[in-house]
Amino acid sequence: MKANAVSGYSNDSNPFGDPNLTENFVWRKKIDRAVTEGQKVDISVKAEKKRQRERMAEIEKVKKRREERAIEKAQHEEEMALLARERARAEFQDWEKKEEEFHFDQSKFRSEIRLREGRTKPIDVLLKNLNFADEFDVELNEPYLVFKGLTVKEMEELHDDIKMHLDLDRESQVNVKYWE
Asked: Can you give the pTM of this predicted structure?
């Protein structure tokens, strides 16, 4: 500690009204009690400086440990945030996959309805050749004949439908090969 100031205060100007602020405090009653009890008391300047160094070292240890805890806490919070993001990403992927499967199932269902009602689209004929065998009255010897007479717009729509089936219809190797 500096002789002239303690934490920015001096003997003359301090909020405590203490004219002896910069002087070392000596706990006289404690020393007197220790002497009457027969304990050895070292009140030399050297001993006081040693105690002061020990206190300062302890304060530094506490500060260092506090900083380490703050760093550990920040790392823990970062890890928790990362886990939460990963969990959310996984949930979103599951949801997205379920949604794709739902749309795929709905497209199959719509195809069945169109086949029953005689409003077939080219993708329905291809699906029928793959899945529905003799269930419906649409007969086609070769699946590639479905491409004949299609407009560009119909061809693009068929391409998109085939691509969706190629991505989602992985029930067997036969289905994958068929859509390829």
From this structure: 0.43
